[in-house]
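Researcher: Final request for today, and then I'll write up notes for the group meeting. The sequence and the SMILES for adenosine-5'-triphosphate follow.
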Amino acid sequence: MSEQDKTIKDPSGKILSLVSHKLKTPLSIINGYSEAILSQAGKEKFSPFAAKALEEINKQGLKMAELVDKLLTYNKVSRMSVKELKREAVPLKALAKECASAAIAKDDDSVAVSSAEPTAKRGTYIEIDCSESLTIQADREILKAMLEEMLDNAIKFNNKMEKIIKVQGANHGDSISISVRDYGAGIRPQDVPHIFDPFYQVDDYFTGQINGWGLGLAMIKRGAELHGGTVNVVSDRGLGSIFTITLPIQ
Ligand SMILES: Nc1ncnc2c1ncn2[C@@H]1O[C@H](COP(=O)(O)OP(=O)(O)OP(=O)(O)O)[C@@H](O)[C@H]1O
Ligand SMILES: [Mg+2]
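Model: Predicted protein-adenosine-5'-triphosphate complex:
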């Protein structure tokens, strides 16, 4: 069989969607049962090995479920047309708070210390600088997925003990921007032109092998384009990055 014959062609995204949906059911069973056993009374009777193994099964199961969700979101957004957008007035600060809380909750390294603003856990701080009255006409679900991905990256590609992340929303008259700034790994100039390509991940000594598909930024780019906007990045290796989504006011 030639190399070409072995290629799986999936122009409509059906295979990706089918595989993702088929994986969801067994994964939710693995995660559901492992969670049920972990929260069951008497689990202290487990041997330390069994308890550790169960925790690891649960943790990895949740990571896999997250990866499957990322595939489904990418598949959906990349194939969506402008006509399919469900535009509504989205209050930006409330959305940013919601995404920040979710990002902190799934950050393994963080330990809750306070629920005061900004959303905080020891290790990761997400500051939100945005007027309460700033709203944007956008597809809420897609904008939320975009912001979640930006925060996911800001936390993931960051090995600082204390991770400071700043989310800023601003009105420029004819457009609205949302930026996420981190002080993490940063990106080498030669990698910047490729990071928005699907399945592209920078693999080097500094960031190492990290969980993910390399699809988050491709999804963000497509999401911005669907709204008639853009995404751009300013980054300094070792100092951090600022990713900015700019969407025109309709
Ligand atoms: N905030 C950031 N700081 C440093 N590097 C980043 C940042 N955001 C993205 N990158 C680099 O760009 C690459 C592509 O990012 P992208 O979000 O598309 O993929 P991923 O995070 O690796 O996987 P996924 O988003 O599918 O979980 C990353 O692998 C990483 O090398
Ligand atoms: Mg990502």
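Model: DSSP finds six helices and nine strands in the chain. Residues 70, 149, 153-154, 157, 182, 184-187, 195, 200-202, 207, 210, 212-218, 241 surround adenosine-5'-triphosphate (ligand 1) (CB under 6 Å).
Researcher: Thanks, that's everything.
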